[in-house]
Design goal:
Elements lengths: L2 E4 L6 E4 L6 H10 L7 E4 L5 H12 L3 E4 L3 E5 L11 E2 L4 H11 L5 E5 L10 H9 L3 E4 H4 L1 E7 L7 E3 L5 H11 L6 E4 L7 H8 L4 E3 L2 E4 L10 E3 L4 H13 L4 E8 L6 H8 L3 E9 L3 E8 L8 E2 L10 H10 L3 E4 L12 H11 L3 E5 L2 E5 L6 E4 L4 H10 L5 E4 L11 H5 L5 E4 L1
Parallel strand pairs: 2-15, 3-14, 6-7, 10-11, 18-19, 22-23
Antiparallel strand pairs: 1-23, 1-24, 3-5, 4-5, 7-9, 8-9, 11-13, 12-13, 15-17, 16-17, 19-21, 20-21
Helix pairs in contact: 1-2, 1-7, 3-6, 4-6, 8-10, 8-12, 10-11, 10-12
């Protein structure tokens, strides 16, 4: 088990032009390439453990992948093949849930598994609605826990109203709808991240979305992708928080997606008093540009209870910003944090308590009384976002973070970038 020790930082001016490529979009690039009959070209694909696992699954389904380290060419097979081995999603809930929808309508038998953390995460939010429209999915706890066994079948069209706003559930159902026997509709309590709709529309799928998403079945193969994967704003957000809490600091996060459903956390940081600016450069599948975050004095407490689906991944890092702010911050309607790589409500509050911060836990969130972070040793519980969030906390209060191998799954060069700001020691 590896550990990180992060020392306090002085004022810094950092240009982040090597932020990890967007994981959500990378997963989808590999998977969606199989919906065409022509090769897709993908530049800047994230070469991290989770997304490479997704690429291996795509290969096991018959695709040919050529990769020169910069540009990837994914050539789909004439017909997807039934694999002779299990399909390992590693630590990625996104991959497992989206592949459930993708594979449910394909002829063949498929087994999805993952690491010990992923095998504990609930899957019924996806497997239950898929089963209702005819999918053959089984697993532990009646299809709630992996390994999941899928027997592809013809799926019925549906009118589904999701009880939660989840991009993973929505994407699984959209992928299932592409091969259903009629037009399907999907509704959710509020708009979740919409990469799937944007990318599939860019490939020619007939998908309309507003308050209700309407999906027509594919009439043939979709157009291939020709895409440069932008940098991940949720990865960049760790350094946005760093600039917002270390006096005199600034960071420029280059070439990230500016999709409004992906940068809500930056808007919250702006509400807390940080100076946040956006510069759009291009807009094809996704709007892409730079985000500049500058220290602007001590942050102020804030309440976060809306658009939670737009910033669910950034809430751990945002909690570190809240811990340094003046006043009390409140997070509500965030039950989804309970079923991430760890119970992130419990993990965040446990870590902050070790740092001397007063917190109150709620079933759907928490309250954080801003104060002065104290040096501490914090357990990440194998959760990459918890590990990186408390590494950032180390910039204002020397910090040791335990169980940090998980960082490699999503942000392989995080420690290298952090080392440009302060001294970081890594050991086992």
């Amino acid at each position: 088990m590896s550990r990180l020790h992060v020392k306090r930082a002085n004022a810094f001016d950092l240009v982040c032009n090597e932020i990890a490529s967007d994981k959500s979009i990378s997963h989808r690039c590999a998977m969606f390439a199989l919906l065409s009959d022509k090769p897709s070209t993908v530049r800047n694909y994230l070469r991290a453990e989770d997304t490479l696992n997704t690429l291996e699954i795509v290969k096991k389904l018959g695709a040919k992948v050529e990769d020169d380290g910069v540009t990837m060419r994914i050539t789909p097979p004439e017909a997807l093949t039934e694999p002779d081995d299990v399909l390992d999603c590693g630590n990625s809930g996104t991959a497992m849930r989206l592949f459930c929808g993708f594979l449910s309508s394909l002829p063949g038998h498929f087994v999805l598994t993952g690491d010990k953390y992923l095998r504990r995460r609930p899957m019924k939010r996806v497997t239950a609605p898929l089963t209702q429209i005819g999918a053959g999915i089984d697993g532990r706890e009646e299809g709630n826990l992996a390994p999941l066994c899928i027997r592809g079948r013809t799926l019925r069209s549906f009118n589904y109203e999701s009880p939660i706003a989840s991009a993973q559930v929505k994407s699984a159902m959209i992928l299932a709808a592409l091969r259903a026997d009629g037009v399907s509709t999907y509704r959710e309590p509020e708009l979740s991240r919409d990469h799937t709709e944007r990318m599939l529309r860019g490939m020619g799928a007939n998908i309309e979305s507003w308050e209700t998403i309407t999906v027509e079945p594919m009439r043939g193969p979709l157009q291939p992708l020709d895409i440069t994967v932008p940098a991940d704003p949720s990865s960049g957000f760790f350094f946005a928080v760093a600039a917002a809490i270390v006096p005199g600091s600034r960071v420029i996060i280059e070439n990230v997606t500016l999709n409004p459903t992906r940068i809500e956390a930056y808007e919250v940081l702006k509400r807390m008093g940080a100076r946040v600016e956006q510069v759009e450069k291009e807009n094809r599948y996704e709007p892409i540009g730079d985000i500049v975050v500058t220290y602007n004095g001590r942050l102020k407490g804030v309440e976060v209870s809306e658009r939670i689906a737009w910033l669910i991944d950034e809430l751990p890092a945002l909690a570190v910003a809240m811990a340094t702010a003046e006043g009390t911050s409140v997070v509500r309607n965030a039950e989804e944090l309970r079923v991430k790589e760890s119970d992130r409500i419990a993990s965040v509050l446990e870590g902050l308590a070790r740092c001397g911060i007063v917190c109150r836990e709620h079933e759907d969130g928490y309250e954080i009384e801003g104060g002065t972070l104290q040096s501490a040793t914090v357990d990440s519980h194998g959760d990459h976002r918890i590990a990186m969030s408390f590494a950032i906390a180390g910039l204002v209060a020397e910090m040791t973070v335990e169980d940090t191998d998980c960082i490699e799954t999503s942000f392989p060069n995080f420690v290298e970038i952090l080392s440009r700001i302060t001294e970081v020691q890594k050991w086992r």
